[in-house]
Write a structure and sequence with these properties.
2 copies of one chain form a homodimer. By secondary structure, chain A is mainly beta. Chain A has a single domain, classed as Jelly Rolls (Sandwich), CATH 2.60.120. Chain A has 1 helix and 8 strands. The first copy, chain A, has one helix at residues 8-13, and strands at 6-7, 22-27, 30-40, 51-57, 60-64, 68-71, 75-79, 85-100. In chain A, strands 2, 3, 4, 5, 6, 7 and 8 form a 7-stranded antiparallel beta sheet that branches. The termini of chain A are close together. In chain A, 36% of the residues are buried. The A-B interface holds A 3-9, 24-28, 30, 32, 49-52, 56, 67, 69-72, 74-78, 81, 98-100 and B 3-9, 24-28, 30, 32, 49-52, 56, 67, 69-72, 74-78, 81, 98-100.
Chain lengths: 121, 121
């Protein structure tokens, strides 16, 4: 990180927890976060912001109320603000998130899976 | 694109020009752009915004005035606002850019390589 270059493979190899986003870069008021997912998260929404998911490895399903969005490696998808969604990953999946700094992983749902203040890695 | 899923390989396969960014997604006021690069661009800076480069394929060197930043596949780097830079790619390189909508590729430099209004793909 000394030279500012962020290698995704390297960063993901240092993430051991699921559902715990880590910040790797800031672009103005946005944070780029990496997160490993496995299993089912909680239904939630972000009323104030869109949220971008990019699948770096594995497969991710983003359940929406009216349909499932299935993402494989190299796929990205934007969940618009206010839209309820629930990420689900059968196997382990590596995801890059783009959203404003301060966006909380559980959105309006809260609860014990909330990571209110993710750390940099 | 009907279902909102953006596959990078598919999108890049439909880009034939170099140095001509195409928009694939919007996240609030930010655009996600894809661009194929080969050769040397122009020195420029963006006084009003940071700019993120993520190398999806190939190798990209971002020349800064004091050093070169070499990026391989899976590497990302943020050029801070106001910092002069010149992207150079010896072979063809596929890059994902994250920056505010309206950010012009040539920044303060202008000139005939400017794409002021990139189209969606």
């Amino acid at each position: 990180m000394e030279n500012g270059v962020v290698n995704l493979t390297d960063k993901f190899s240092r993430i051991n927890e699921h559902w715990s986003p880590r910040i790797v870069a800031a672009v103005n008021n946005f944070h780029i976060k990496l997160v490993k997912l496995q299993g089912e998260f909680v239904w939630h929404k972000h009323d104030e912001t869109d949220e971008m998911f990019f699948v770096s490895k594995g497969q991710l399903t983003i359940r929406l109320r009216e349909r499932d969005v299935v993402l494989g490696e190299g796929d990205l998808f934007v969940v618009p603000r206010g839209v309820e969604h629930c990420p689900v990953a059968e196997g382990e999946c590596e995801v890059l998130l783009i959203e404003p700094a301060g966006t909380v992983n559980t959105g309006d749902a809260g609860g014990d899976r909330t990571v209110a203040d993710p750390s940099w890695i």
